[in-house]
Amino acid sequence: MYYPDDVVEQVRLANDIVSVIGEYVTLKKKGTRYFGLCPFHNEKTPSFSVDPASQMYYCFGCSKGGTVFTFLMEYENMTYPEAIKALAERAGIVLPEQTYSQKEKEARDRKSRMLEMNREAAVYYYNNLRTSKGAQALEYLKNRGLSMETIRHFGLGYAGKYSDHLYQHLKEKGFDPVMMKDAGLIDISEKNGVNDRFWNRVMFPIMDQGSRVIGFGGRVMGSGEPKYLNSPQTYVFDKSRNLYGLFAAKKSRKPYFLLCEGYMDVISLHQAGFTHAVASLGTALTAEHAKLLRRFVKQVLITYDSDGAGVGAAIRAISILRDADIRTRVVRLAPYKDPDELIKQAGSEEYQKRIDTAEDGFLFVIATEAGKYDLQTPEGKIDFCHAAARLLNDLSEEVERRSYREEIARRYGLTNEELEQVRIKEASAPGFKPRQVQPKRTSTVRKAQRTSERAQQTLVAWMADHDKVIEAVKPFISPDDFPDSMCSRLCRLLYEQHSTGTTDPAAVIDRFEDQDEQEKAAAVLHTDLSDIRSARSPEKALKELVCQVIIDRLKGQPLNQALEGRKRAETLKTTNITL
How is domain 241-365 classified at the architecture level of CATH? Predict the structure, then answer.
């Protein structure tokens, strides 16, 4: 933990969750809880619940949930320590100094100083744009259709024609030349001395999710090369882990992002009202980009250039995003080259129409492949059928393959049987390697697995809801009896907490620093207990639930463990418990 548990608890208790979330969401009291429209997905009927008793929130629509810290982490995209700091400041609590090793302190100070220097450089470029030196660059941006408000919002600027002015400016501000070089702002060589990396360029500050300047992109004025120049990888900037425009797009609360290729596309789309546009930074989309996107959305609309290179990049992006479990659609831009050109020439309404009719990502790949063959000839149709079959084999789930196979057959004049036969043939061809092998499970196995998971989650949620449940089950069940790792960890934490004489589910969730884990924990602790509460004999229901968890755990265990578990279950059946 970055801060001691007692400090985190002090901050949480000082920030009533209803009060904090009420600053972001309109809440209305219904019974003992408060409800409102979920801020994390679009809905018309309130399913977002805030419970003042447990100091937790949960959305029954999108399954987002957690404590007051989790809410700020999700809504404001803060880290766990940042959420603690923000709420401590809100409550007027002075946090203790964090303890760092000398190495950690140096790393923290270096990062802080580099971010401060980048910000100063961004201010310098921004101010340059508004002087006579930046007149040409400002005219260029205006000719591209950008308003002064858009220029301000994205912090656009200008690096002057002299190749050491930024260096001199930062030096006057007390920044170290070695750090300037490490930040990619200057170059130092024996032959040429010190030179600014960016000069005579329109400047695009690159900001992280927290709106901190981590790097720059520069577009040359005139015919110089390279046309676009980006910051190199630095201590604070990794282009494969950041997306341009994300600092603004995350605030849109849209269920999907528009994925572009360049800075101007993002800026133009934001100005036109499409404030959920982002772009990779001078590099092809990476798996790290996909992971970052997955934190915010489950669907991405790819809006790359309409030329051959753009189509190829879109196909690669579809594959990467699919691996990250992100659904994709592709916005068709032709006859326009890119989103910027489409909006300028056809308007934002036309672009919205293209969004509304965007094509499913996998079917876009199929359509691109179909364009390589003459489907009016038997030879072309056969070759396409084999190509489509290979692409179908790239899908990991049978239900997905079947759905797409039926649509492909319908669109291209094939039959399901023909396409399936070819698919099987391709799958058995020498050298074929499936993209991802999914173990085949019968519906009976899946149902049993779901029943087991449900039992585990119900028991843990009941333990968190009622002190006496913990007292009743502790002699018979241990955290190791839960195959589900989250249930096992929650059980362990609840036992630890109960041994101190308290039961506080929100404090348990706060033991998880990772936001995804906090949300998973909240989902378990919000398992519906209505059937349990309405049972004629809660004691009998509890015994049956614990026995089910124990017996489910025994499957596949060595004989001695299985016998020991059954003995526990039989002992529980004859034990009197009171709730």
Answer: 3-Layer(aba) Sandwich (3.40)
- Model-level pTM? 0.67
Would you say the CATH fold of 102-237 matches that of 5-91? no
Q: How far apart are CA 338 and CA 118, in angstroms?
A: 30
User: Is 546 within 8 Å of 579 (Cβ atoms)?
Assistant: no
What is the widest separation between alpha-carbon atoms in the chain?
A: 89
Residue 287, CA atoms < 13 Å, CB-side half-sphere: 2
Domain covering 5-91 assigned CATH 1.50.10.10 in the classification: no
Point out which residues pair with 204 in neighbouring strands. Answer: 217
Q: pLDDT tens per residue, the chain (579 residues)? A: 467 778 888 999 999 999 999 999 999 999 889 999 998 887 888 999 999 988 999 998 888 899 999 999 888 878 788 899 999 999 999 988 766 667 767 777 888 899 999 999 999 999 999 999 999 999 999 999 999 999 999 999 999 988 889 999 999 999 999 999 999 999 998 888 899 999 999 999 999 877 889 999 999 998 888 899 999 999 999 988 899 999 899 888 788 999 999 899 999 999 999 999 999 987 789 998 998 898 788 899 999 999 999 999 999 999 999 988 899 999 999 999 999 999 999 999 999 999 999 999 999 999 999 999 999 999 999 999 999 999 999 888 889 999 999 999 999 999 889 899 999 988 887 766 665 444 444 444 445 556 778 889 999 999 898 888 898 888 888 898 888 889 999 999 999 988 888 778 888 888 887 777 888 898 899 888 887 777 778 888 888 888 888 877 776 566 566 566 667 777 777 677 666
- Distance (Å, whole) CA 532 – CA 539: 10
- Give 223: exposed, middle or buried? Use CB within 10 Å, 0-12, 13-18, 19+: exposed
Backbone angles phi, psi at 43, to 5 degrees: -155, 155
Domain borders along the chain are 5-91, 102-237, 241-365, 371-427, 443-573
CATH of 443-573, one of 1.10.20, 1.10.3470, 1.10.860, 1.10.10: 1.10.860
Helix, coil or strand: residue 333: coil
Helices (H) and strands (E) in the chain, counts: 27, 17
Query: What residue type is 137 in one-letter code?
Result: A
Topology (CATH level 3) of domain 102-237: DNA primase DNAg catalytic core, N-terminal domain (3.90.980)
